[in-house]
Amino acid sequence: MSREEGATRRAILNLLKIGGTKSAADLSQQLGLTEMAVRRHLYALERDGHVRMQPLRQGTGRPVHRYGLTEQSGELFPKNYAALALDLLGEAAAKDEAAIELMFKGREHKLLGRYKPRMDGRPLRERVAELAEIQNAAGYMAVLEEKAAGSYELHEYNCPISQVADTYQQACNCELSLFESLLEADVERRECLAKGGTRCTYTIKAKALECDR
């Protein structure tokens, strides 16, 4: 996709965000492009899951096709969740420093309750693979390596909560504790993005009493 095509598709997304559903003719008029050109961009945005067509019937005859944004398109627009989270954490810390620890431990317990059923009764190799899938779904860009003697390395190349983790080390501590609880294994963090590393790397080994099947 050329830079010009990207700019046009961004303009279409912005118009739909601000003005709601529109027909290709509406967008054509607003953008100063032919309907055919607009439809080509709409088809591409629809294929990528950012736009959906919504037929609108107006009496008899063929329905008018209008286009609107999907929920998935929300990821394309600016958000300021990190700043909000930091502000809220800052307010909590100003009143009670211990509250920060409690908040992160509460999040850890919530995630443990959510994901533990996916681990129960499975051998370590499957638990580690499941954890990699969970982290990838959350945007961590996780890569799993199986090492010698049944040990593993989990690398995370992105941290969706990096701005929070840079300020509050409790976020990283709770992630390590969560991994240990989910995997029921010995987990060691060897590299950390929040401490200047190029990735977060965890070494995972079965506990001494566990025989990995």
Number of helices: 8
What is the second-level CATH architecture of the largest domain? 2-Layer Sandwich
Decide which structural class fits the backbone.
alpha+beta
Helix fraction by DSSP (H/I, runs of at least 4): 40-55%
* Rg, Å, rounded: 24 Å
Q: Note the run of SSEs as H and E.
A: HEHHEEHHHEEHHEE
The pLDDT mean sits at: 90
Protein name: Transcriptional regulator
InterPro entries: ArsR-like_HTH (IPR011991), HTH_ArsR_DNA-bd_dom (IPR001845), WH-like_DNA-bd_sf (IPR036388), WH_DNA-bd_sf (IPR036390)
Pfam family, one: HTH_5
Domain HTH arsR-type: 8-49
Q: Could you please describe the fold and organization of this structure?
A:
The protein has helices at 3-19, 24-31, 35-47, 81-95, 97-115, 124-137, 162-167, 170-183; strands at 22-23, 51-56, 64-69, 142-146, 152-156, 185-191, 200-206. The chain is α+β, with helices and mostly antiparallel strands and 213 residues long. The chain folds into 2 domains: 3-76, Orthogonal Bundle (Arc Repressor Mutant, subunit A); 81-206, Trafficking protein particle complex subunit 3 (Muramoyl-pentapeptide Carboxypeptidase, domain 2). The longest helix is centred in the middle third of the chain and has 19 residues, at 97-115. It is elongated and about 70 Å long. The protein starts with a helix and ends in a 7-residue tail after the last strand. Keywords: DNA-binding.
